[in-house]
Amino acid sequence: MGDQFIVFTGRPNAGKSSIIRAVTGLKVDVGKDPGTTQKIMRYPVAEGLILIDMPGYGKSLRSSRGKQEETKDDILDFLELHAGSIAVAIHVVNVSTYLETEMRLAKKGFIPLDVEMVHFMKRDLGVTVLVALNKIDKGPKDYIEDNVEAIKEGLGPSIPVFPVSARTEEGVGALKEEVRKRLAIRGFQSPFEKVR
Ligand SMILES: Nc1nc2c(ncn2[C@@H]2O[C@H](COP(=O)(O)OP(=O)(O)OP(=O)(O)O)[C@@H](O)[C@H]2O)c(=O)[nH]1
Ligand SMILES: [Mg+2]
């Protein structure tokens, strides 16, 4: 059998690479500005299992429109090509700015990208998707809660969500456990043992 994949997706700066560090221990590059991960990064983590750290999907002020489109195409091509071999995808959302970002982009005629992306992976590609609602440490609790509820509503009840902070590690245990389960189903026991 060919390689299987664990894939991390999300908008630029959502904290994909930070979540990878927190969940797997793999020392991928993290940076404070969007555009830190520039291309699809592949890390073999166990026999037959490759971890994918995706660049940001969607609008970013740091890169040109052409570059953004190219990145989007690369991501969609990868997902379509490997859909059947994706053991689990973790879509990361910066939940501390979710409503703000959605509203700002909606005014400019952009679609709600996070929800779209998750539904695309699950419904169209048949991929198992978990959603990490990251950065719950960042901002007033009430506001974070409103954001969590808004994205839950957008995603619908069939998508498992995990409010987390890659920074404080709050909620990371539950996400880790779910990832572990999904990988075990595909035959990967202790998949990140060799990473540290
Ligand atoms: N406060 C807070 N900051 C976080 C959290 N997770 C990530 N960050 C910060 O968010 C910034 C972006 O993190 P990355 O992990 O590089 O984000 P990314 O989604 O991989 O970004 P790109 O590769 O540029 O698309 C960094 O400054 C992180 O330290 C979190 O849970 N809380
Ligand atoms: Mg990154």
Explained architecture:
By secondary structure, this protein is α/β, with parallel strands linked by helices. It has one domain: P-loop containing nucleotide triphosphate hydrolases (Rossmann fold), CATH 3.40.50. Helix content is 40%, strand content 18%. The chain is built from 6 helices and 6 strands. Strands 2-3-1-4-5-6 form a 6-stranded mixed sheet, sandwiched between helices. Strand 5, helix 5 and strand 6 (161-163) form a beta-alpha-beta unit. Helix 1 (16-24) packs across helix 6 (172-185). The longest helix is centred in the middle third of the chain and has 18 residues, at 65-82. It is globular and about 45 Å long. The two termini are 26 Å apart. The structure holds guanosine-5'-triphosphate and magnesium ion. Residues 10, 12-18, 30-32, 34-37, 55-56, 134-135, 137-138, 165-167 line the site of guanosine-5'-triphosphate.
What is the secondary structure topology, with strand pairs?
Blueprint: E1 4-10, H1 16-24, E2 41-46, E3 49-53, H2 65-82, E4 86-94, H3 98-107, H4 113-124, E5 129-134, H5 141-155, E6 161-163, H6 172-185
Parallel strand pairs: 1-3, 1-4, 4-5, 5-6
Antiparallel strand pairs: 2-3
Helix pairs in contact: 1-6
The structure holds guanosine-5'-triphosphate and magnesium ion (MG).
Residues 16-17, 36-37, 53 line the site of magnesium ion (MG).
